[in-house]
Amino acid sequence: MNDGGGSSGSGGGDIDIHSTSEGIKLTIKNLRFAPDRADLLPEERNRLNLLAQALTSSGGKAFLVEGHTASVGRPGDEMNLSVERARHIVDELVSRGIPADRFIYKGWGGAKPAGNNSSEEGRSANRRVEITILE
Q: I need a surface site. Which of 33, 43, 57, 103 has the fewest CB within 10 A?
């Protein structure tokens, strides 16, 4: 399995925002991790700093962090990786001053694709983290 998250661009500005029945969902696209690991690449630090600033201004609301992977390996491995990545994002945001008790996290593996896994573009769309500011 190789779910590295790609290597194109600086990753800045790749956040979609939309309302859902649960709250405001932020989809962080092209978030780059080390291949097959939950470690973020160092160049993602600034994006997480900006994200933490935005979440801090949301008052005392709770956040649901969901990890997704491309479907390129064994489903169990994809599920584990997506959980680890979601947990890592929570840890990173907590280290930036957001209380840990405001977070819930889960992984979906490749079960909720945003793109077609038969192309690199589709796999890249599937490698994402979604954060919902819960209402």
A: 57
